[in-house]
Fold this sequence. Notes:
This protein is α+β, with helices and mostly antiparallel strands. It has a single domain (4-103), classed as 2-Layer Sandwich (HIT family, subunit A). The protein is built from two helices and five strands. The chain has helices spanning 4-9, 57-73; strands spanning 17-20, 24-28, 36-42, 80-83, 99-103. A five-stranded antiparallel sheet has the order 1-2-3-5-4, covered by helices on one side. The longest helix is centred in the middle third of the chain and has 17 residues, at 57-73. The N and C termini lie far apart (31 Å). Bound molecules: adenosine monophosphate. Residues 4, 13, 15, 27, 29-31, 85, 91-94 line the site of adenosine monophosphate.
Amino acid sequence: MDTLFTKIINREIPAKIIYEDDQVLAFHDIAPQAPVHFLVVPKKPVRTLNDLTEDDKALAGHILFTAQRLALELGCEEGFRVVMNCNDLGGQTVYHIHMHVLGQRQMHWPPG
Ligand code: AMP
């Protein structure tokens, strides 16, 4: 069965899309936790970070690089945070890996 994010990638569910290429889609989070909060999602539906393999190393780097480039484009050059939640204990709710990018407010540590 398709994940929620695969449905967004396939345009079956609307989203505010920021960027797309052959490997990833980036779109604004529906429940933003900062003035800038978007997700970078691989088109390949990897379920959790635990499921990444050696073959996914270039894809993982592309997700991070896309996050950095879009964060800068969206005015977060003074600082931003990237987050990837893994599994229930890590706070993951959508089982299709994604990188959160949050910016334009002061971040705190430790996260909740
Ligand atoms: P996580 O809890 O790390 O799995 O993150 C899932 C994120 O997806 C949450 O921040 C949700 O707000 C976000 N989300 C859920 N449904 C949608 C949607 N239809 N469009 C955009 N973001 C969504």
